[in-house]
Amino acid sequence: MHHFIYKDNELYCESVAIADIAKAVGTPFYLYSSATLTHHFNTFDKSFGELPHMTCFAVKACSNLAILRLFSTLGGGADIVSGGELYRSLKAGVDPRRIIYSGVGKTEEELRYGLVSGILMFNVESEQELEKLQKVAREQELVAPVSFRINPDVDPKTHAYISTGLAKNKFGIPVEQAEKVYLRARDMSHIKIMGVSCHIGSQLTEISPFTEALHKVKLFIKRLETHGIIIDYLDLGGGLGVRYQDEKPPHPQEYARALKKEMAGLECTLVLEPGRVIVSNAGILISQVLYTKKTETKNFIIVDAAMNDLARPSLYGAHHDILPVIRNTGKAAAGSLQIADVVGPICETGDFLARDRELPAFEQGDLMAVMSSGAYGFTMSSNYNSRPRAAEVLVKDDQFYVIRARENYETLIRDESIPDFLE
Ligand code: LLP
Questions:
Q1: Is the CB of 125 under 6 A from ligand 1?
Q2: Is 56 one of the annotated active-site residues of the chain?
């Protein structure tokens, strides 16, 4: 469900005509609907009902301050993976007691920052990280709350780049080794064991890998109990998939029902770290057609957004639906469809938003919406080819707000300098 809908053949976000935003802000820009974001967050969170749980939004999916603030007003916490994400979350007003710090490579400085900020817990991923955290905590005269991320060796059946819970992936500690690590942590002076965590991958479209992982974690928690180690938080990570094309991911309610069943007999609070399922279909990328070009073999639609703005098609071969902002103009009025590649201005053949796609006959100047771009869209964008990054806009009802200004040439070079010897 989302709030990007046609009214008289013109695409709106809630009650705002997208063409009006483009006129005011220029293109390309990311556009988010606050009604969709709110609906998705609440649907997910409320699916767990009375079960003690915490929804910690995965900041990496969409990290704009305004969006983080929105989720925190809805009672959400944050799942972070860097000092930068911690900084953003705190600036956005997320309660540190609802922040979980994940990731395989936290630096000493980042561990310290998390610790002094009073976050709920660190999901520690190696014994060396544990040692480092103990050292930092002792220096700060604080006790570090930890959970260990275990690698359950479960196949999430998703794209290889975003599968994380297989034994061959870099993430977590194998279950067989984890028990020893917990016993070690229990004896450390500045470490407090809080939980067990796991995250098996992203864009999962089946429930069984989640329940399989949860079952393994549950057995592991029972084993820890025999050592007198009591677990307060079970963090199952994120990963619930969305529909980009014809996938049929489970509804959050179905997902929650299965997890709740598997949680029976456990006393702990369930922590969830959803990213994509909350924001993906709540955001789109708006771009304008610069040129069209026909060759012997192809039709090209060259637009002003590129792989630096939305990396997913180039990086994962991901599908994003493409819609015209104004339907029924020009050739499209006659219903003429064409097979075309939608490409950006970047100097790489891999720079495309769609390939061999059946599309309306877009013409120069037309606006185009690249759908389902709210997750891992702006957050994965770069300045490649010295392209200033796009603006981000949030709509609420009949108003729109620029929540990140478009970068400009000045901001591009702001932090660079030419050393004296080149003067
Ligand atoms: N928790 C942890 C520890 C994670 O590593 C991730 C995602 C999440 C939660 C959130 O997962 P989600 O609910 O969004 O599936 N750039 C890729 C996705 C990378 C996911 C990385 N980790 C893409 O565009 O498909």
A1: no
A2: no
